[in-house]
Amino acid sequence: MPKDFIPDYATNVLIPIANPASAQGLLDLASSLCSPVDGELIVLFVALGIDPGRDSRAVAEITPVVEKFAADGFTIRLVTHVSANAARGILDVAREEGADLIVLGLPPPRGGQVALGGVVEAVTATAPADMLVYRAAARTDFERVVVAVDGQLPARVASRMGILIGARYEVPVEAIYVQDPRRPWWEGYGRIAQSLSDLPGQQTVERSVVQAQAWVSGLLSRINDRDLLIVGVSQRSRLERWLYGSVSREMLNHAPGPLVLIRRSTEAPAAGRLARIRNRFNVTLTQVEQEEVIWKSEEMGSATIDYEILMLISAILASLGLLLNSGAVIIGAMLVAPLMQPLIGFSTGIATGRLDLVAKSVSTLVQGVLLVLGISVGIGLLVHGVDFPTPEMLARTSPGLLDAGVALASGAIGGYATARKDIPSALAGVAIAAALVPPLCTGGLFLGAGDVASSARALLLFLTNIVSIVLAGWAVFFWMGMRPRRIEQSRRQQYISLALVTVLMLPVIAILLSISNRESQATLVERRLENLLTPAEVVGLDVLPGDETRVIVTVRSAEGIPSSQVQIA
Predict the structure, then answer these.
(1) CA angle 479, 481, 482 (to 5 degrees)
(2) β-pairing, 144-148 with 227-233?
(3) Dist. CA 39–CA 10, nearest whole Å
(4) Which of 164, 178, 347, 441: CA 20 to 30 A from 543?
(5) Are 135 and 108 in contact (CB under 8 A)?
(6) How far is 240 from 125, CA to CA, in rounded Å?
């Protein structure tokens, strides 16, 4: 669609209702903007789970209003969504339902001040759809729609919505342009004509030019408590200035009648199944949620006594499980290990440019690694002579692309679960421990037994997994919108974060390429040996790189293999 696309009717209109008393007014306004042919009104109540009885009563009060609109012929349904955060619940449902317009309500001014609330701030900052913020007034009805215009695209959008609302309420619509008294009158009317050109129904709109030194005072001088004022804004930064700047405060606090702020989505307008899928996977975190992730990462990045005790227990369990060749015991170690904490803290630090968090997480990680390594080396010194090494240990001395895939998936799960309150963090802990604790303990056991080469291969797998997990976690946080935020240091922090990511990424790419090359070489060797040693079956193959490639192969055959075939192979 063209960049200057002017919406007509919305198809899926989402109306979050927190106060049942506001449901009627919000639905009246939203219904005027919803397509009468294929449009749907989606009334949303976000249950926080704090007081189930209160939530049930609120839904019961909203239901009759929804049923009334359904009886009047509107396609409407009530959706209840449980979430730990109201803003997150609204954003999630907006993406799942493919909403193209979100209608939010603000209460009337009290004591001359409008209480904005954190929900409005969070939703308007990250909404995947067009936004309409409706500030109610003492009077619930209005006799005229007034649109503030300036010839720009936001004013054209506001004008079109003003025409639709005027038609729905059967009230006149007036477009007002405020200009400096030194400018000629015809210039103001030209701006109005520019805002209304080619809009359906624009011939019914009255046009007025107000000459005033200040935009707000000039506009307020022409409206009263029986007017609905509509203002369009184009970008999130401008909307934030509208909501929280001095001009916006004056409008929100002193406009005598109801006020509507309209913001187009910063993304290009789109429709259809692909657009809905794209928006569904756009899970940008709100500012409050980002702060919560940082606070949580600060806590997780600390080397507490609980962290050290859990690492000690997991090291003992994993080492014994490897020696016993017991998958069940190894899984027990995975459940206990808290290595998720410093790694996700590390990912958060590089995503937000928090060098203090990066340093803190690295320090905690190193402490945990040294503790596990020390325990496993000690156990290896004591018991390496009994059934050593076991298949579980050998499985962790041959790093492969599949292991890297497990690590990347673990990091992604860890980052996503940390950012999303509704997902149990234990799931991420299990996944990350699965990719870290066993290879680390394997390296320690081999080191204690004096097998440095096998220990090095296991520790290489461990280090590759660490870097893969951190990078995957960083990618998830970046996808969720986490960036350096302090304006005076943001560019420097971004450069540092990019450098850290690059430093981590290059060795991983080199290792993965080496692993891929070795696996390809092993596959070719295995196929050749199977052809040469037919009917024998190759059951084990180890390619040892060096100046001269050496191959250790284990075969199984029901018949003897002639020595001539072995020599050719």
Answers:
(1) 105
(2) parallel
(3) 7
(4) 441
(5) yes
(6) 8
Both structure tokens of 277: 């899928």
- Dig out the tokens for 226 from the structure: 């029986």
Phi, psi values for residue 183, rounded to 5° = -85, 150
For the stretch 373-383, pLDDT in tens is 999 999 988 87
Residue 29 near residue 134 (C-beta atoms within 8 A): yes
Residue 473 to residue 350: CA distance in whole angstroms? 10
Contact partners, residue 381, CB within 8 Å, separation at least 6: 448, 449
CB atoms near residue 426 (< 10 Å): 11
Give the pLDDT confidence of 458-469 residue by residue, as tens digits: 888 888 888 888
Instruction: Give the E-state strand segments of 70-153 in sequence order.
Output: 76-82, 101-106, 130-135, 144-148
Segment holding 248, helix H or strand E? helix 246-254
**What CA–CA distances, in Å, run from 177 to 167, 261, 430?**
21, 16, 61
Tokens at 237, concatenated: 């930064």
Q: Is 336 exposed, middle or buried (0-12, 13-18, 19+ CB in 10 A)?
A: buried
Q: What is the DSSP string of 421-442?
A: TTS-HHHHHHHHHHHHHHHHHH
Q: Are 169 and 257 in contact (CB under 8 A)?
A: no
Q: Which of 304, 310, 300, 375 is nearest to 336 (CA)?
A: 310
CA-to-CA dists, residue 156 to 230, 268, 496, angstroms: 11, 16, 42
SS3 108: coil
Return the structure tokens found at 148: 């503030």
Q: Report phi then psi at 19, rounded to 5.
A: -110, 115
Letter string b/e over residues 131-152, b meaning 16 or more CB atoms within 10 A of that residue's CB: bbbbbbbeeeebebbbbbbbbe
Q: What one-character DSSP code corresponds to residue 383?
A: H
CA distance 69 to 26: 12
385 C-beta neighbours (distance < 10 Å), count? 7
Q: Which amino acid is at 109?
A: P
